[in-house]
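Q: Got a minute? One more chain.
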Amino acid sequence: MAIRLFSALILVTGIVILPAINAYGQDDQLNWRSTSEQSKDMPAKDTDADRSQQDITPKGFGPREFTPDGVVRQTSALGKVGGNTALASAAVAKTSSTSAPTLNLPREHGQIWREYDISPYTLRVTSTKRPEQAVVDWILRETGYEAWHSQPLGILSATPRVLRVYHTPEMQALVGTIVDRFTASEAATQAFGVRVITVDHPNWRTKVHRYLHPVSVQTPGVLAWIVQKEDASAILADLRQRSDFREHSSPHLLVNNGQSTVVSTTQAHTFVRDVTLRPQVFPGFEQYTGQFDEGFSFEFSPLLSIDGRTIDATLKCSINQLEKMVPIMIDAPTQQSPRQRVKVEVPQTTHFRFHERFRWPIDRVLLISMGMVALPASKDKTLVPGVPLPFGNTPARADVLVFIESRGQVGVAGEPNRAGQPPQTAHRESRSYSGRY
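A: Always. Here it is, folded:
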């Protein structure tokens, strides 16, 4: 009896499995036939040999030109590979190495895609973690920030090795010129003399006016001149003879082409900005302190022309002066001291901001007068040569002068310059993009 039941069970199972196997085989044949019919419908001229001759890989790091239609053609070529697995794998490998976009980007204005090799510049700059940011900054300064955030559609992206740009041919030509200015010099380190000087009165111009050749400046109250190097030395010699002469910066700096360097001198002032009543703790209140950094900050970013004869530079100057502290008495009564009062201070300050761009020959000296602005350093109450005594509550003012001079290329950072003095490097890593352009 058991043997009969077992035989019946095997017979029923075989009947169920057999149709499933037949159905699977029929589906497999249908799938195979559909693939065969699709391959028959393909054009005869589109053979594997023809597809292997298609150049779907842009050549090198460019500048490499690419249009969105090219992306569609590459994708269709990969789709027609069919069952040739080796050829499909090779084509995919080539396409992945191009790093080209796969989206159909708008091109109403004839935009094209190009990639620029900036590694000859970035590999030589060691003063910052992101040297490619300088390339992007100068492109935005030259082309305008709005050109990349309005019509026509534009893309600007940089890695430590490649700059990728999607824009019109005219904009590509301008970007290519800027990239050449970085890569042509191979991130040459230039020695610059940057001097920040103050005098109490602008009458220094009387004796040296014949040496000054004015250039245009947009900031009201600021003047700039181009001076021969010999005449600049004579002007400095005349200024040093004044009793109110004072120099605020190191005259020797090393700056990588295109990068920014900052010369700054600040003094921190701590004050009580607010109090909170806390009767449960002694002395019945809690003080909150603030800090005001008084001094100046001067940022200098030069970019040489391709032939090395002209300097383009952006200059930023920021001066913060603490005129005085205005006291305020706050009531903070306790059971032990019902008439207790606490002093809170409010700083009275003066600020000066300057942001301009200049271009001048490399064999000349740029001289800038900021005008009678806040003194970039605190005055002492003792008689110090070069610093006048403050009378009354009048805040200190001075004519701030900036001398910028190129001292030539330096092959290795830290090498002595032409004057035989070791140059100093002033650098501050920018952590914010606010106000950069």
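A: The chain has nine helices and 14 strands.
Q: Perfect, thanks.
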